[in-house]
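Project outcomes to date are best conveyed with an example. Our students and postdoctoral researchers have been running inverse folding experiments weekly, and each run begins with a structure described purely in tokens. The record below, which covers 264 residues, was selected by the lab manager from last quarter's runs and is presented without edits.
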């Protein structure tokens, strides 16, 4: 019982930043870290409709370098730095249909949002972690980075694959200095963003959202657990990875996909 009670507030005194933290997986992570005792900062482009007094909010578009600088400066001024950084920001909103419909602007947008926003924020906030010789960075990637679908995720998958490689190399650089870097690759999560993605695909294909959802799961090879994840399930994994219980884990990529990924 004592061990369980200790775990409920095991992040007390820690400062955490969750990007894209006002909805979907990001909000679930922010809420879970708060529940574990952390003071959580969230970023998003727009203030959420319902004010969440649990979290310190900074409006920012992290695909814009100057906004990354703004966020880092405010964090350093208000909190001195962070102990936990969850780079959750990402999106797959570009046109489907393969290489011929994708412009240079589309590719640049995918890289800015899904890769370079994390690279820049790490560069801004990591020095303080290295100075204090402790910290955890989580990069939220996607199984799409290892299992791409040309019809709908080409630039997104390429950017997430690059994020996976970057995260692994960064972990090797900073591990000896007390900072852990871990990748989490969710599969399909039942979020509003996923619902919009499926609606757009269904409209383009002229079929129902239900049929498109089934088609997507079949295209991915099926999900043995038979459903999409609840974002809270992904958040629970992240909460464990940033906790002292995961103190010997770094450089790994954790796949959380209901058994979908087809290789050992």
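After processing, the design step wrote out the following sequence:
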């Amino acid at each position: 019982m004592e061990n369980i009670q200790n775990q409920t507030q095991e992040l007390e005194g820690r400062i955490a930043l969750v990007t894209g933290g006002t909805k979907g997986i990001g909000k679930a992570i922010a809420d879970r870290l708060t529940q574990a005792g952390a003071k959580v900062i969230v970023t998003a482009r727009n203030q959420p409709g319902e004010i969440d007094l649990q979290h310190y909010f900074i409006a920012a578009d992290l695909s814009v370098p100057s906004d990354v600088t703004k966020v880092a400066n405010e964090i350093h001024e208000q909190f001195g730095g962070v102990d936990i950084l969850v780079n959750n920001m990402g999106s797959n909103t570009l046109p489907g249909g393969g290489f011929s419909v994708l412009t240079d602007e589309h590719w640049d947008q995918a890289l800015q949002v899904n890769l370079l926003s994390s690279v820049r924020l790490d560069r801004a906030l990591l020095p303080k972690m290295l100075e204090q010789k402790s910290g955890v960075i989580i990069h939220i990637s996607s199984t799409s980075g290892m299992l791409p679908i040309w019809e709908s995720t080409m630039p997104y998958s390429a950017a997430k694959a690059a994020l996976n490689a970057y995260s692994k190399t960064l972990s090797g650089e900073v591990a000896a200095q007390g900072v852990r870097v871990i990748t989490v690759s969710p599969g399909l999560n039942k979020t509003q963003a996923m619902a919009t993605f499926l609606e757009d695909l269904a409209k383009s294909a002229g079929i129902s959202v239900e049929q498109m959802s089934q088609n997507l799961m079949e295209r991915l090879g099926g999900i043995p657990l038979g459903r999409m994840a609840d974002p809270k399930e992904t958040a629970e994994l992240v909460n464990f990875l940033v906790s002292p219980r995961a103190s010997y884990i770094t450089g790994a990529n954790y796949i959380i996909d209901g058994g979908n990924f087809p290789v050992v």
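Residues 2-189+234-256 form a domain with the Rossmann fold fold (CATH 3.40.50.720). The two ends are 36 Å apart (CA to CA). The training component of this project remains on track.
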